[in-house]
Amino acid sequence: MTTNATGGAQPTGQTDGPDEQGSTPPGATGQDGAADATATTKPSSTGDATDAQSTTTGTAKAATGDAGTGDPADAKPTTTDTAKTTTGDAGTGDPADAKPTTTDTAKTTTGDAGTGDPADAESATPDTAKTTTGDAGKDDATDARAGSDGDEKKDGDGEPRDRWSAFAPAPDPVPGRPRRAARAVGRLLVHEWTLATLAALALAVGMTWPTLRYPLYTLPQDYWDPSLQAWQMAWSGHALRTEPGQLFHSNTFFPEQWSFAFSDMLLGYAPAGMIGTGPEAAVLRYNIMFVLAHALATLGAYALARQLGAGRAGAAVAGVSYTYAPWLLAQAGHLHIVSNGGIPLALAMLARGHGWSLRYGYRPERRHVGWTYSGWLVAAWQLSLGFGIGLPFAYVLAGIVLVAATTWFLRRWVVRPVKRPFGTRLLVADLVGGLIFAGVGALLAIPYFKVAELHPNAARTLGDIGVYSPPALGFFTAPAESRVWGELHESARATLPWHPEMTLLPGFVLYALAAGGLFFSVWKLRQRLLLLAGVLVTMVLAMGTRFFDGTFTYGLLFEHLPGWNGLRTPGRMMLWTTLLLGLLAAGAVSAFADRVGEIAAERAPYRPSPWLRVATVVPVLLVLFEGLNVTPHPVVPEQPVAMRTVDGPMLVLPSSQNLDQPVMLWSTSTFPDLVNGGSGFTPTQLDEVRRVTLAFPDQTSVDYLRTLGVRNVVLLRDQIVGTPWEVTVNAPVDQLGITREEVGDAVVFRL
């Protein structure tokens, strides 16, 4: 279109006729905007019709857009400004001057009125752009024309609402706070780790049954070592609550110092020891922690297998095989051995914190320092439960740190240097966490060094280790507590010198699954071979001196690693063998489960057959079946009344390693000073007390006990049958300067 000198508007190549394209017919809108548009056209009655039409069209569109708002006042200034510009330039009679002005005006009004072109809007004159942009900011001309009815719907921001929104589905109502909380709880309940935790707890209750049937009166396996460990938890809680400075100087083995460190302390369970008092509370506490220890072991091994890359079914096999291996049934009376769940859990947390997986390798984007700190703290807690299994764990962690440090050095400086390959924050977390772990270990080691210094007879030799070293047959022999293999392996156990520590069968099902994992697995071949090497090395160490006298195996560790000579039973290295076998088995089961998923994906619709679903569960069920137990749960001897009323220091007779452990449990009512005690070794003084008091009451024994500071002697009538006290219990004591009193079923001699 063009505009002539007189400003007349006419379509190019056509004769004069009605308004075309964007111009608004008179009376179409019935508002001032249309009148202003017409007024804009009239002054330019002569000139180039093409340019005039452009001016008229653009101006009319602007007018229509303004009219659509229903505000004549807004429409009028825009039209007036445009009209002034067009008329002023056109009235000069200079087409060259008129054309650029008209073109700019047309662009401005057209862009503002509905083309949605921001570039055009920006090129407009300030007055025009501001007016038309504010009043006619529609997406297209259709919307502008629709607004002329004056019934335009607007949203909360004053913008026109899409006409078709009325046909859209109603938005979901925003849930209230209670419903959001309920949904969050629902998601939490069906989360994998919630289900894994609940399953681990349920399995622990069922697989250790009847531990919780009579938790106040019975203990698993026997009431000797469990009584000792029930007392340990009670004493640590009592000492920390009353006299923390006396923690390592317990009420037993009077008048010995550092007596709490005569065996593994289970110090990590001290918070539980703060709840309740007396023998019944101690027995209940022990049984609860016994069950929870099994649950934690299952969850920890499951978490480790999952972090390393195993599937759920494979991780479940690793978890239950690590916890319910047949050989562990012989350790039911040793809570410090059963409490091993912190080992795989700490390793899982550390691996997750470092973004490392056996299956997927190192993934820096998955690093998380929080998990790293948590892993080190759990490792320190595990160490506080005892050095029996904690010391090998500490050396394993030290080896991992050494490998990681070497890898860091190579990546940082030698092989394809990478700036901070582990990240500064992660490196700081490892340094801080490692120092915490080492600090806890050092503080716990101080009492044991004191005990070694004061009691040289507590030191062990390779000859002592040989007594507990199992032969190769032990790896295929189950303990008597195994429901499946116990009776069948009775003859094999008879050939073992000390079968409670030499029946090391991890499970024939586990052996088979691990063997299959060497050929069919989600782990790479190199990783399978490394796991196999770990299995063989730990088996050799578990044999102690039975493997070529341990000269180049266990003997090297015994002679050169600090603290290793304090470990009495090498067979407990089987814990690491079981864990590595479980990871091999997890690789095989995970590969099988993946294959089941591929077969199911080929079906239409996607739905695994029931038989395929059952097949993925069978390995777990078989491992659990092999872990069923017939562990006895004897009733704990009832506490004598005298143990609640007689003050210390006291001596309870008869005294021996096994008899003294229930006496320690009985002392949990008031924790009097007690000469009795049972541990991994017998102090020289206690051995002397037992020898001298065989003739009690006589002058020699009375004088000796007075020298030690003993004030009362409690003689248990139900325990003296067949002992020297059966005759001397009623002997006259007047000439000894002591008194005798009957208190319940006991005789109390007051010195």
Automatic annotation (TrEMBL):
Ranges of compositional bias, category Low complexity: 24-41, 55-118, 124-135
Region (Disordered): 1-179
Feature: compositional bias, Basic and acidic residues: 136-164
Domain of life where this protein originates: Bacteria
Compositionally biased residues, Polar residues: 1-15, 42-54
Keywords tagged on the record: Membrane, Transmembrane, Transmembrane helix
Keyword Membrane appears in the UniProt entry: yes
Transmembrane annotation, as ranges: 188-209, 283-304, 426-449, 504-522, 529-548, 573-593
Name assigned to this protein: 4-amino-4-deoxy-L-arabinose transferase
Phylogenetic classification of the source organism: Bacteria, Bacillati, Actinomycetota, Actinomycetes, Micromonosporales
